[in-house]
Design goal:
Distance between the termini: 22 Å
CATH architecture of the largest domain: 3-Layer(aba) Sandwich
Oligomer: single chain
Strand order of the largest sheet: 3-4-5-6-2-1-7
Number of helices: 15
CATH topology of the largest domain: Rossmann fold
Largest sheet: 7 strands, mixed
CATH class of the largest domain: Alpha Beta
CATH superfamily of the largest domain: P-loop containing nucleotide triphosphate hydrolases
Structural class: alpha/beta
Mean pLDDT: 85
Order of helices and strands: EEHEEEEHEHHHHHHEHEEHEHEEHHHH
Amino acid sequence: MKKMETIAQISTPLGSGGIAIVRMSGEKAKEIAFKVFQAKNLSMENIEPRKLYLGDFYLKQATEKCMMVFFEGPKSFTGEDVIEFQIHGGEFLATKVLETLLKNGCKLAENGEFSKRAFMNGKMSLNEAEAMIDIINATSDAEIKATSLLFSGKLTKQLKSIQNELKNCLVDLEVSIDYPEHDDEYVTIEKIKEILQNSKKEIENLLSTSYVGQKIKFGINVAIVGKPNVGKSSLLNCLIGEDRAIVTDIKGTTRDVLKETITYKGIKLNFLDTAGIRESEDKVEKIGIERSKNCIQQSDIVLCVLDASEELDEEDNKLIDAVKGKNVIYILNKIDKNIKLNLKNGILVSAATGENIEKLKEEIIKLAKVNNIDFSQIYITNQRHIEVLKEAQKEIEKAIVSTDTNLADIVDMQTKKVWTTLGKITGESEAENIIEEIFSKFCLGK
């Protein structure tokens, strides 16, 4: 493999803090480190990997007392020699340390370049690299659990297993093409058809997890709708445990969609408080009402809020008609007052006292089908993976159809397309432009 330049970058967020880490990777990392760092009785010959050394980092006009650690390749994150300096956490200081390394022979690392080198050196698959991005950006327990499983390489292992089966098929097909005098082509293609059908089932099983995977990653969008003054904003405040929405007795207070997110049992719930739906001549309120109607269509679940202390009126009935066909939970609010309304499929709550709010949250995750997630299995959370698997599904269906021709060269061509498509996730056979796009999403120093 061609030797790459030694790179350096600040690996911790910029700003003041307890420590900052400046990282180098490459064949000259150790050599450059000993140009700028000194510790008692320490030399390039006796330095031990994975051991912290206290010493002095020499800047142009000052000396920084810091720690240095050496990770010897290939047993490092990038697969190359890696040096990290743990310095005092000042942004200006970290920048000066980085500048010193660059002056002594390092190249400034681009976004994700450390991780890209880990991929290029076989330390992680393309899928594992993307899972790392998701772990860094995770905002819920469920997301961390799901992406950690992907980062462990379980998805890569499963897809590579499918690729290996397809590769064996391709070997058999090449023999049939190169040696047509053999009279067992039909049997070979029948065997290949069976393997393709089994692979198709595995791909479909993975795709079937994408619904839950997307809910794990992005959360459940829950629209809170109702006519004015039924307690929508009070319900939102009660659900999130904060006074975020303005609550008044004046109709039409909420004029836009207010979004608030909480995590409940590891799952993100995105609550969307909407403008009260009613007939209005107010230009601004009408815009808010139209957005409320759009919100109903785009949400996973609709909380249709009704006033339990009043009988249903025409506006209520229009709203009930508007949410038909959606995943709806009917909320009978204000049960702390005299109850005049009851529905068989409604949940009685009080936004004022918090009664039955936990029951409502349970019903939301149950209706969204994320209440019994088995985190020992793979969930496809990455949108790019979903699109690639859909593409692979289409290609493998074409490959299965092609087996009916009993022409080895056609089956060979279609099977190669399946193998190449799956390589967009595993990294085998992947095009350089997609690799560049993935690693550009990483932060600097990663």
